[in-house]
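User: Hey, quick favor. My workstation is busy. Could you predict this chain's structure for me?
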Amino acid sequence: MAQVEEEAWVAFMNVVARFLGKKKDPEYGRLVNDMLENFQKLGWNMNLKLHFLNLHLDFFPQNLGNVGEEQGKRFHQDIKQMDQRYQGRWNVAMIADYCWCLKSKTKQNQKRRSIWLSFATKMTRYSDKRHTNIN
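Assistant: No problem, here it is.
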């Protein structure tokens, strides 16, 4: 194994052990940046998972060991679907598309009540008030 490959491997193992494990290292940002720099030295392109990791480091919980298996499976299924949609090519809109898919999936569970009333509702409300004022 060449020196550059070994450095990339060690950096990857550090990220796995000290960031993605049960406890997050206080210098997790440096670990991830070292790994990405070593990958760039090898000429490797950043895939969607690494791009997501790099942009959202601060949103990872302190204890990643508590994240459930189903959440991991769902993430991998979503990423697989995104990979099929973009056919392995990188696109600027990939992250936005992924976030939009997440938002649309969770929006189905929520129903927001409209602030605008229909004409029929207004007529019913108006006629009720008029009849109460006459009495």
